[in-house]
Amino acid sequence: MNAVGVVVEYNPFHNGHFYHISQSKEKSNADVVIAVMSGHFLQRGEPAVIDKWHRTKMALQNGADLVIELPYVFSTGHATLFSEGAIQLLEAIGCTNFAFGSEEGTIHPFLNTYKLLKVHEEQYNALIKQYVATGISYPQSLYKAYEELRETEQSQTIDLSKPNNILGYHYIEAAKRLNLRIEPMTIPRIQAGFHEDINTESTIASATGIRKAIFEQQSLEKIKQFVPEESFMLLADWQQQYSSFVQWETFWPYLRFAILRNTAEQLTRFADVSEGIEFALIKAAKKSNSFNEFMTQLKSKRYTWTRLQRMVTHIYTGITKEQLHYSAKPSYIRLLGMTKNGQAYLSQYKKQFQLPLISRVASTNDPMLLLDIRATDMYALGVELASGKKIAVDYQTPPIRL
After folding, report:
1. Is 19 annotated as a binding residue?
2. 169 annotated ligand binder
3. Which of 117, 128, 292, 365 is deepest in the core (most CB within 10 A)?
4. How would you class 350 by CB atoms within 10 Å of its CB: exposed for 0-12, middle for 13-18, buried for 19 or more?
5. How far apart are CA 370 and CA 366, in angstroms?
6. Which residues contact 388 (CB under 8 A, 6 or more apart)?
7. 12 annotated as a binding-site residue
């Protein structure tokens, strides 16, 4: 059985994701689609709008055969770390290809870009330092350095101002640098841009636009045309049980408490909290009545919204620098769900997997997996305190079977 891998968050699963899965399977001639999915906290430092179990069901009902969890260590990391964890897991579970969505839509410009930055690595790093010294953010410095190198390049390269192109490049970079056998392919992103609002004349919208509509309207009707029926029903199920969807505002009272219960020195122990910001975090937490107000006070040229969100994610979950960087490689494959086809794949190939397959977490002492369990517990606590109702946690929940 030939397997193609996809790296996903499904926050929530929408029609664009359905297109991506179906095209990935068709173009790779795969028998099985394996999704490595972030758990409860995501790459931009956000809590997922619904829990990982609902999102796993969405994936399995719409073309994925296996869903495995991207550990918290990687799912909340910058693009390089996120990509390394995801691609290593897809390699470990036996995928021959990985398919990512991109604005570029063809693979050769990605390979040309990798070659350009590899050949001119010293010059590229020197340019990054120059731009950082001007006071602009690190992501902006990366982009400006790349554009300067790109000016003299003859072959076609990608636009690294586009978010899906950026992640796609990092997937390829991870696979090449780690000498993995898994081969890349890309699926053109269609209709909706990454940050665009929903367009009622289309059936495709970005997850960002869908989330914005949900939170602004407090109703699912406006997004019904943009998600598969199964996803809509699972979103409705969540709303019926817990009244509202999860965002940082949901957790704000508890995040505020987590910040203010620590001294400035203690805050610097948490992952991604850089020296100097700890005083500003405390000052802003004391003054702010909402998460948005808190973030608006902190955001600057040096500290982007995403970078700040990653900091506060680790403060909220209580995860330190030492814990987050304990290992640079995944140490297990955590199974969240499977179809009958996925189960057949596991039965045939699991002895060949490069990492142990974990379906239940009751007897684990793996430090990386313990962080996942803690993240789930803190997500569940926030939902429970906000809604008065409990959600499934790791110790109680076996893999979903469809």
Report:
1. yes
2. no
3. 117
4. middle
5. 6
6. none
7. yes
Angle at 252 between CA 246 and CA 256, to 5 degrees: 150
According to the annotation, is 10 in a ligand binding site? yes
Of the candidates 394, 372, 247, 244, the one whose C-alpha atom is nearest the C-alpha of residue 312 is 247
Q: Write out the DSSP string of 220-259.
A: SGGGGGGS-HHHHHHHHHHHHHHSS---HHHHHHHHHHHH
Asked if residue 170 belongs to a known ligand binding site, the reply is no
Confirm or deny that 125 is annotated as ligand binding.
Answer: no
Residue 108 annotated in ligand binding? no
164 marked as part of a ligand binding site: yes
Q: Is 11 annotated as a binding residue?
A: yes
Where are the domains positioned within the chain?
106-161, 248-321
Say whether 190 counts as a known binding-site residue: yes
Q: Any known ligand binding at 379?
A: no
Tens digit of pLDDT per residue, the chain (402 long)?
Answer: 999 999 999 999 999 999 999 999 999 999 999 999 999 999 999 999 999 999 999 999 999 999 999 999 999 999 999 999 999 999 999 999 999 999 999 999 999 999 999 999 999 999 999 999 998 888 889 999 999 999 888 889 999 999 899 999 999 999 999 999 999 999 998 765 545 667 777 889 999 999 999 998 878 999 999 999 999 999 999 999 999 999 999 999 999 999 999 999 999 999 999 888 999 999 999 999 999 999 999 988 778 899 999 999 999 999 999 998 887 899 999 999 999 999 999 999 999 999 999 998 877 789 999 999 999 999 999 999 999 999 989 988 999 999
- The pTM for the full model equals 0.94
The one-letter code for the residue type at 88 is Q
CA distance 176 to 187: 19
13 annotated among ligand-binding-site residues: yes
Consult the annotation and say whether 6 binds a ligand.
no
Question: CA torsion sign, 114 to 116 to 121 to 126?
Answer: negative
Q: Is 14 annotated as a binding residue?
A: yes
